[in-house]
Design brief:
Layout lengths: L18 E13 L4 E8 L2 E8 L4 H9 L5 E10 L14 E12 L17 H6 L1 H4 L3 H23 L3 E2 L16 E4 L7 E4 L4 H9 L4 E9 L11 E10 L3 H20 L8 E4 H8 L12 E3 L1 H6 L3 H8 L3 E7 L10 H12 L5 E10 L2 E5 L8 H10 L7 E7 L2 H18 L10 E5 L4 E4 L4 E4 L14 H4 L8 E6 L2 E8 L4 H10 L4 H14 L7 E6 L1 H8 L30 H6 L6 H4 L1
Parallel strand pairs: 3-5, 6-9, 11-17
Antiparallel strand pairs: 1-2, 1-4, 2-3, 4-5, 7-8, 9-10, 10-22, 12-13, 13-16, 14-15, 14-16, 17-20, 18-19, 20-21, 21-22
The chain binds one RNA strand of 77 nucleotides through β1, β2, β3 and α2.
Length: about 600
Amino acid sequence: MLKRTIYVSEAQANLAGKEVIVNGWVHRIREHGEGLTFINVRDRSGVVQVIVNDKSPSQVRQTAKGLKNEYCIGVRGIVRKRDDSLINKDMITGEVEIEASEIEVFSTCDTLPFAISDDKTQAKEDLRLKYRYLDLRSGKMKDNLILRTRFVTAIRKHLDSKGFLEIETPTLIRSTPEGARDFLVPSRLYEGKFYSLPQSPQLYKQLLMVSGLDRYYQVARCYRDEDARGDRQLEFTQLDLEMSFADREDVLSLMEGLFKDVFKEVVNYDLPDKFVRIPYADAMNSYGCDKPDLRFDCRISDFSEELKASSFEKAKAVVCNGGFAKAIRLPLLDKSKPYSRKQLEEYLEEAKIYKNKTGFFLKAEKEGNGLALSGSAAKFFDAGQQAAIISKFALEEGDALLVVADEKWKAACAQAGSMRSRMGAQLGLTQGKGFAFCWIVDFPLFSYNEELGHWEAEHHMFSRPKKEHMEYLDTDPGKVLGDLYDLVLNGYEVASGSVRINEIELQEKIFEICNYSKERAQKAFGFLLEAFRYGAPPHAGIAPGIDRMCMIIQNETSIKEVIAFPKNTFAVSPMDESPSEVSEEQLRELHLIIDAKERK
RNA sequence: GAGGGUGUAGCGAAGCUGGUUAUCGCGCUGGCCUGUCACGCCGGAGAUCGAGGGUUCGAGCCCCUUCACUCUCGCCA
């Protein structure tokens, strides 16, 4: 077998005259009559041109004649520097070519189900997933996976330098009743019992803190049996991390240092030393979500007072009855293309996805020497109110103001936020803006579940209430803010963490507020509570999502693009067709089928 | 659980208001070509228009049903 001596991208001018062997796939063939053939050979490093001409050995000419796309081959040859006129500047190896002296075909290739290419006319995702091994031959997918491994390696290097231990935790664990749906694994040895695949190694990492392994991390696979999305798969990878004797500040600055280091090393991008911190309530009010895209500003403002003063009875009623109104200015960037009614209504449609019922727009138009508002709702605001609105929102001619109102604060924010996102995309405000990190802090610890009629942990039940809010635990849980933090990058939540509870009493109190009886809590989390009896250190942690961060770095819009073998939107792998049926025998063994006679 | 979008040759697409033999590019295939590099040139094969039903003299196009994929809401501590 012709065994590789170099990756093709290493075929550079300094090897001119030397014999090399490359292994790879036939990327493209260009035949020029009998005497001259060019073969582009591709391996994971790139592409190089192999040349076969009338001076080549007859074996080589014969073999070259039979080559087709994607044959897997080995080529022995001499690296030749190309004449200046023949240099291909678009190719990394464009200054050289390999003059073949031997070609070995390792394996032929059927006609491909789709072209292996990087351009936009590539096959649809479904087909790409079915033939994922071919899809991964494309330069883009290879680049994405290589970036991913470099990203993880850089993280390991940094954390190792900070004294962190990489420790594996089990993936067959006890099912915990809270949070997302668990994937369950039936036990063969114990009829009617199940393991669960971890949604995160949360409890184990806290136990490692009790063990005194005070700086832990793990590149951990996590599983959640929920519907997939562009940025969500049922299995995904998190950098799970926990540290003892640490407070919020320690975790935040560790992460800032980590990502500053990693982004410099992996994509040569300079991040600031500190990331902006925004309290949750401010983020909701100003950006309409808890994961704002800070690549552009365009803040949302309150519009309640303006509505209250107006004669727009329908919208006014919403705020007068305790509701909320939010407005966002849509600047007219191209003065020659004023916004049409239809365009503005498309923005309001965006808000309707989040159940908006009351929305309208106002447009600033020239009137006399100044500006006045137009649009079907303008008549509800008198001249003085219009002037005040124009000045408050700094509206210029042609700008529009998009307004939504809703009984619920969160809903009103989300509706305005969805319009803001559309603005960013449509006006191209995010293009070429690099990486905008921020922290969202001070999340509420609990939210009230109307359906179940009790409080629930907003993040999880092991997060610590802020010191100054402890007093509200008994009186008004909704008022309690937690020592919680999310890391946000370009509009995506990329990490989530908290300072944890390490006292039994407080932990039990939180369980109680979340409607966990002592018995139920004991049954589900007894081992954690017990561990807290034995000198549990204060600790805090975080878990950045590896897939999402790689997706953003590579400017992809789906995490499938940075996962080698992802599932589709219906949780199916079109390639191996999992999930699949299993034999009755297997089911019987797992006690999922019980024979009639046994049942007696 | 709900909504939007897509489905035409191996792949990516076009197909007007329902009207002849369903079009284009890539790929495949036969041939020509000694410096190409997304090589070029000449020829060829390849389609139950996702599936089923309906309306019509006539359906890729209209209607109904259904399937697959995709994005989103819900869900995702």
